[in-house]
Write a structure and sequence with these properties.
Layout: H1 6-15, E1 33-37, H2 40-52, E2 60-64, E3 69-73, E4 87-88, E5 96-97, E6 108-109, E7 112-120, H3 129-132, E8 147-152, E9 155-158
Length: 159
């Protein structure tokens, strides 16, 4: 099990290739969508653009074991103060959930092992009580065994 820290994010950023801006999602909003990045810079720029959008809703991001980053946006189901972490407990995705705790040491998103997970905040880096509770209740947002963070104002705040 690997825990994601700011130092390990910086190390991954130095080894990532850059995705051209033309490959980034051109419009923000609409249907649930996952955008993948191999570049730390493109990943962070996407989060910044999303937060600056007038149609902002929280976004959930995943730091994957293969070195990529995934950002899930779902304007139909998320709002500016609430999002839901989606994950699987097996790489095949056969056991999936969004609010039930993982029974294994590894968690997956769309078949990819997850090292870190988090979501965006617009007003504060401070986690809510729901953010710091372990997944298993109806609105909890903390996954055990992986790094959990909030992206706010250009930084990742781990909790």
């Amino acid at each position: 099990m690997r825990t994601i820290t700011r130092k390990s994010l910086d190390e991954m950023a130095r080894t990532m290739s850059v995705i051209p801006e033309s490959k980034m999602m051109s419009t923000i909003g609409g249907e649930p969508h996952t955008e993948y990045f191999t570049s730390y810079g493109a990943f962070v720029q996407y989060l910044n653009d999303w937060i600056a959008s007038p149609n902002y809703t929280e976004a959930v991001y995943y730091i994957l074991a293969d070195g990529r980053y995934a950002v899930l946006t779902d304007p139909e189901n998320f709002d500016a103060y609430c999002s839901e972490i989606t994950y699987e407990t097996s790489p095949s995705g056969s056991t999936s959930g969004s609010t039930s705790g993982s029974t294994s040491n590894a968690v997956y998103y769309q078949g990819n092992e997850v090292y870190g997970v988090g979501h965006t905040h617009r007003n504060s880096p401070k986690p809510t009580d729901e953010n710091t509770s372990v997944l298993g209740g109806d609105t909890n947002n903390r996954l055990e065994g992986v790094g959990n963070s909030i992206y706010y104002n250009g930084g990742f705040y781990f909790y």
